[in-house]
Write a structure and sequence with these properties.
Strand order of the largest sheet: 1-2-4-5-6-3
CATH superfamily: Hotdog Thioesterase
Helix content: 10-25%
Number of strands: 6
CATH architecture: Roll
CATH class: Alpha Beta
Structural class: alpha+beta
Number of domains: 1
């Protein structure tokens, strides 16, 4: 759900985000400076150790980050991102990534994303992501 009428950039991104959609990531909320995305870990997401592949955790966090930094209606792209994996995740777990804007100065933004195993503030944190964005006015979706 988008708390206010979706800025065109957010709705265009959601329609064109094939990578997240094909991986099973669902966008569930967007508001100015924040976003929440969900992924239920399936066997296709597991690595050779039988736990969720870190690339999928990064993709989930990056998706929430992307929608949070584009929530102001000005196109923005990632300037960088880092993730720390804290706990392994097995198949069947619903992961919830919550992105929060920490700072937006000029065209540069800083966002933190917490990935939890389940909903609610008491759910176990499995990873922390920090993303840096750069607004690019005039950028249009490539089709």
């Amino acid at each position: 759900m988008i708390d206010e009428p979706a800025p065109r950039v957010v709705s265009d991104m959601e329609a064109n985000d094939v990578a997240s959609r094909e991986a099973g990531v669902r966008l569930v909320a967007v508001a100015p400076g924040t976003a929440r995305a969900v992924l239920v870990v399936e066997p296709r997401h597991l690595n050779g150790h039988g736990i969720c592949h870190g690339g999928y955790l990064f993709l989930l966090a990056d998706t929430a980050f992307a929608f949070a930094c584009n929530s102001h209606g000005v196109p923005a792209v990632a300037a960088g991102g880092d993730i720390t994996f804290l706990r392994p995740v097995t198949a069947g777990v619903e992961l919830v990534a919550e992105a929060v804007e920490k700072e937006l100065t000029g065209r540069s933004g800083l966002y933190d994303v917490t990935i939890r195993a389940g909903a609610g503030a008491d759910a176990e944190v499995v990873a922390e992501f920090r993303g840096r964005s750069r607004q690019v006015p005039g950028l249009t979706a490539q089709r």
